[in-house]
Design goal:
The chain is built from 5 helices and 8 strands, in the order H-E-E-H-E-H-E-E-H-H-E-E-E. It is α/β, with parallel strands linked by helices. Helix 2 crosses helix 3. The N terminus is likely disordered.
């Protein structure tokens, strides 16, 4: 009988297999590293949003939100709009250019309103009724006398089936219901051009 020696592995093939295994492990390690980095970034983003968009500091009946850009202010308005109820009157105050319209647009979005929302400066009131409840958006900046509110039948809106959002409400303070909520938007240039402090009371 003839002796047949076992096949010996070739050195080249062994080296090739080792290299392939090493490359595969490096690829897997890099992929896991990338996935880990993405998760960490998302965690940081969520934490940032929690601190600066959704965070709230309680001060005996009112809440203070801090937003760092117009998108944050929009999203805060949207969140409050999602929680709005029929019959609510919300006073929206703040200086010119502080972001009241952006907040209102987010608020409308939270109600499910898709059409463009702008301040009704010359019409005093704009009604949006395509959302889950009607939105009665007042801008009383050009009101010369609170008596003008009677001419547009404001009581039908204040005590209607929708929610009222009133910009520059301090100009008609004597007509505002005692249980009305208040949203005050303020700038603080020391914290940045886009920084806003939003104080919410009664919601």
């Amino acid at each position: 009988s003839k002796f047949i020696p076992p096949n010996k592995p070739r050195i080249g093939e062994m080296i090739s297999e080792v290299i392939k295994s090493a490359v595969f492990l490096v690829f897997v390690e890099k992929k896991l590293y990338c996935v880990t980095m993405v998760l960490l970034i998302r965690i940081v983003q969520v934490n940032f949003a929690w601190q600066f968009i959704q965070s709230k500091i309680l001060f005996g009946g009112y809440m203070v939100y801090e937003t760092m850009c117009w998108e944050d202010t929009f999203n805060l308005g949207k969140k409050i709009g999602q929680q709005a109820k029929p019959g609510q009157v919300i006073c929206l105050n703040g200086d010119l250019g502080v972001g009241k319209t952006v907040f209102t647009q987010g608020f409308a979005k939270g109600l499910g309103i898709e059409e463009t929302v702008n301040s009704p400066t010359f019409t005093i009131i704009q009604v949006y009724d395509e959302g889950r409840i009607p939105l009665y958006h007042f801008d009383v900046y050009r009101i010369g006398d609170p008596e003008e509110m009677y001419e547009i039948g404001y009581e039908d809106y204040f005590f209607g089936e929708g929610v009222c959002l009133i910009e520059w409400s301090k100009l008609i303070e004597e007509l505002i219901p005692s249980d009305a909520a208040t949203v005050l938007i303020e700038k603080d240039l020391e914290k940045g051009l886009d920084y806003r402090k939003v104080t919410v009371e009664g919601l």
